[in-house]
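anyone seen this seq b4? input:
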Amino acid sequence: MSVEMTQKHLLDIGVTILVKLLKVFSLILTALYFLFIYWIVIYIALDAASFELSRHNINFASAKVVYDMFLLSIAVSLVLAEVVVGVNLWLWFQQKKSIVE
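predicted toks r here
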């Protein structure tokens, strides 16, 4: 009888661990999804702003400056997207922590 109880207990522990891993994995996938979406949206906004800047100011219209603005907008949009997703995750964990307490 105790062997069956031990096996059932180990199975329950295994299922509990699996469920926790699936929750973490789904949180990671959701964060990556939102990172990708925010990156695209912020990049489009920065690219539009750099295009307007190069269109209205002749000093920003050279090929080198336009290429540099392109690289800068990619880097800045990625950093801003990471900040937005990081703040969202931090707020989510703070909310979960306050519910548990």
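The helical segments are 2-56, 63-100. The radius of gyration is 24 Å. kinda curious what u guys think
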